[in-house]
Amino acid sequence: MKKTLYLLSLCLCISTNLAFSNSTTGKITTINFASTIADTSRPGSAQFSIEGGFTTPGYNSTYAAIAKEDTHLISLLLMAKAHDKTINVFLDATSKYLHDRCLYVV
What we know:
Helices cover 28% and strands 35% of the residues. It has helices at residues 2-19, 71-82, and strands at residues 23-33, 46-50, 64-66, 86-98, 101-105. Strands 1-2-3-5-4 form a 5-stranded mixed β-barrel. A hairpin with a 2-residue loop joins strand 4 and strand 5.
């Protein structure tokens, strides 16, 4: 039983690391807000960029966005920008909002 639990825990750790292996750290350089009638799959989102760009393979390295429903993340983004803080960004490569641009996830 202990061996099975250990293996399950190990698999969970590995899968979590793989799921969030495309994280990027940097200071926010720009924040733009899209109109609710914008021609994207996620109108009203908050688009942003960070120093050094994003590293999700096959996706835009300059821009990412936060969906308008994630108001807590938008608030954190604005606070980090206002206080010149470094953030750690995890992009969801399965959720695009415009062409090759990904959404930020927690």
